[in-house]
Design goal:
With 345 residues, the protein is of the alpha+beta class. The protein has helices spanning 6-26, 29-43, 59-67, 72-75, 79-84, 89-95, 100-107, 112-116, 127-148, 153-172, 176-194, 265-283, 298-307, 316-321, 323-336, and strands at residues 198-203, 208-210, 223-228, 233-236, 242-245, 251-258, 288-293, 312-315.
């Protein structure tokens, strides 16, 4: 079995880290604990817990929570809280460390994902759904708390992230290609943004946002088009992954981003890339074609040389791990869209 190139291994771990961070952010985990805690401080004291045995909260677990001076709402799900805040199910399921599939199987509630994603409005859960979810989660938490004894808020937060990480890890292997594209696109946008070269962006719903309305903390993944100060634009799509246009709508450059753990699959990915570049150059022969890849093996290098379709090539980890290489890459893009002189990169 051929040895996996170091650049591919390095890229896989780097992209996994960026993928996990982005998923934790976009799925709302970073603010979830704070949101529930704030609610617990304001409304928690008003909740009635006298019927907690009906909620399947054990006396032993309740006493441990009280002894450790933890707000009960941070540990146990109350029917009223779930009914009025259905999306909090993500928090309670996560601290109970139950996967979505497991919660569906145990509680018999089939739309767990929709509830957690905010697709169920407040007050729209049936009494039966609330009862089954509350009992399932609280029964599990009672067991965990009874065995843990030394539970505290930090550990609850850690339990939430552990469950989130397991869920995200399950979707990682099928997402490495998309994450490679996302990281490279993010680098391009970030550098153009900080150079004050962006005037507006168009999102995937075709809504335009002026640069004054945008912040680097906003969801980058929704951006489809970047409009630049000189009338040029950059489109994020597929085949090619990035397309650069001049003020008249002519293509001046394209980028294909190829990420993956399997070097043997690089040859297969080359075919789609060659076709994409060939189609572009047939109409715009002066366009600059750029390949960003996990690695470039000798055989791939040979085929690239023979095709004459690729005019610039970069290794992903060189761009992501070296400020110098990142600057070179982005300045190449800036030169193609005439933001800087090609001789002064």
């Amino acid at each position: 079995m051929p040895k996996v190139p170091e650049s591919v291994t390095k890229e896989s771990y780097l992209l996994k880290s960026t993928f996990f961070y982005n998923r934790l952010r976009t799925e709302g985990y970073f603010g979830l604990f704070v949101q529930v805690k704030k609610h617990a401080k304001i409304e928690g004291p008003k909740l009635g817990w006298r019927d907690r045995t009906l909620f399947h909260i054990s006396d032993e677990a309740w006493e441990i929570v009280e002894k450790n001076d933890i707000m009960p709402m941070l540990v146990f799900v109350h029917p009223k809280v779930l009914q009025l805040n259905p999306h909090f199910l993500k928090y309670y399921r996560s601290i109970a460390m139950i996967p979505q599939k497991g919660l569906k199987a145990i509680s018999g509630v089939s739309n767990v994902e929709g509830i957690e994603d905010g697709k169920v409005e407040s007050g729209r859960l049936s009494h039966g759904q609330v009862e089954r979810l509350v009992q399932t989660i609280n029964e599990t938490m009672s067991t965990v708390i009874s065995l843990a004894l030394d539970i505290n808020e930090k550990k609850l937060e850690g339990m939430m992230y552990a469950t989130a990480g397991t869920k995200i890890d399950g979707s990682w292997r099928n997402s490495i290609g998309a994450e490679g594209e996302r990281v490279i696109r993010t680098i391009i946008f970030h550098e153009l943004f900080v150079h004050s070269e962006v005037t507006s962006v168009i999102d995937k719903d075709n809504h335009i946002h002026s640069v004054s309305e945008w912040d680097l903390g906003d969801d980058f993944d929704c951006i489809k088009v970047i409009n630049l100060v000189n009338g040029y634009s950059i489109l994020f799509s597929s085949e090619p992954d990035v397309t650069m246009y001049d003020g008249n709508g002519a293509i001046v450059g394209v980028i294909e981003i190829k990420s993956g753990l399997d070097p043997a699959g690089a040859l297969e990915r080359l075919g789609a890339m060659f076709k994409s570049f060939e189609n572009t150059l047939a109409e715009y022969p002066n366009a600059v074609t750029i390949l960003v890849a996990s690695c470039i093996t000798d055989e791939v290098e040979s085929r690239l040389g023979a095709s004459m379709l690729v005019r610039q090539k970069y290794i992903t980890t060189n761009i992501t791990s070296s400020e110098h290489e990142k600057r070179k890459f982005v300045n190449k893009i800036r030169a193609i869209v005439k933001l800087i002189n090609a001789n002064n990169k």
